[in-house]
Amino acid sequence: MSQLQARDLTRSYGRTPALRGVTLDVDEGEIVAVTGPSGCGKSTLLHCLAGILRPDAGEVIWRGERLDTQPEAARSRLRRTEFGVLFQFGQLVAELTAAENVALPLLLAGTGRRAARETALSWLERFGVAELADVRPGEMSGGQQQRCATARSLVTGPRVLFADEPTGALDTLTGEQVLTTLVRLAREQRTSVVLVTHEPRIAAYADREVTLRDGAVEHSGLELNVPSTGGAR
Amino acid sequence: MNSGRVSTPHVLLGLLATGDKHGYELKRAHDERLPQARPLAFGQVYATLSRMQRDGLVTVAGQERDGGPDRTTYALTGEGRAALDRWLNDVEPPYPYVTSTLLAKMAVALLVADVDRVRACLAAQRQAHTARLRELTVLKHAPSATLDDVVAADFAIAHLDADLKWLATTLSRVADWHREVRHEPAPGP
């Protein structure tokens, strides 16, 4: 079922249009890649869908209700509880260890300290960085930081993960490892993913690819026939 | 035609679509249009032309002899035009080694086709490449995939990824070029 919908979204920065009537549906558990050249509106679309930015016109509908018209407090709550956000560079809190970083969204959502740490450790393990639990970001490689950031973005079991060039700063192999783990775990917990990328090889992991050009959808579709039992590993 | 080598007959058809030419002009136009390709040998030009004439794709438009060697001018026939159109419309199977055919086709498309046609060619090709890239990505992550499979898939994926970036860039370039051309005033006398 379509749980997140964009209807005819328009957004400008000053006089520069970034989105010019974009319509997009994201189904439950679906992984949608948003591709296109720099400046085509990919990130603006992602920020509108995640309730970070408000569109100038059009609607964002989350599970049947308008998202874009809700006050910032409500949108911010939604981002803490239902959404996960992941960017190109990890944005880990420099003063916190890996385990503390990953536990942070759980603590903000009201989980107890001990339970939050245990869950955080299990997620670090899933991303193969359990040994970094008590290490701070400054002592990690870029790939290690991004594994921790990805674990943190999924730790609350969000319904939607918004990932903006999540492998953009990583080498091919590290990027592939982070992405395949992300995709596998998202599929396991039926998290939808909106994956913004300009890399065709990264977009190929999605169920569907939507290409933007000059703020409009140029191409939508290209269903990937992933075996329904398996999924990408 | 899927071997990854440039299809000389179709390139010649494309060159003749811009006007009648004799063998030497065709050779020169070919080498200019495809500077990265191996220069065409005269023998190959004439052998190809005579096969194409036999098949009804080209016809002799005239013969002149001003002191020098015999110069036969060739013209595209309706059938030749149709063969060229079929070739331009056919999507190249996205194997890693077809890059040169792909490039030759786009070069010819830019030469003979209007901008919408070129963009349609590029978009269709991008779709075929994307579909193949996705197939390989699934294959590569199949539980049964061996290291050899993964390494081979990586190779093909890297080439397809590069081709796809090139196709996207070319689509943007053609769009920019078209915009520029439309907004430019007509050249003066």
From TrEMBL, chain A:
InterPro entries membership: AAA+_ATPase, ABC_transporter-like_ATP-bd, ABC_transpr_LolD-like, MacB-like_ATP-bd, P-loop_NTPase
Domain ABC transporter: 4-232
Domain of life: Bacteria
Statement: the UniProt record of this protein carries the keyword Metal-binding: no
Gene3D superfamilies xref list: P-loop containing nucleotide triphosphate hydrolases (3.40.50.300)
Pfam families, per database record: ABC_tran (PF00005)
Cellular component, GO annotation: plasma membrane
PANTHER family named in the record: ABC TRANSPORTER RELATED (PTHR24220:SF685), IMPORT ATP-BINDING PROTEIN (PTHR24220)
Name of the protein in question: ABC transporter ATP-binding protein
Organism: Micromonospora musae
Top-level taxonomy: Bacteria, Bacillati, Actinomycetota, Actinomycetes, Micromonosporales
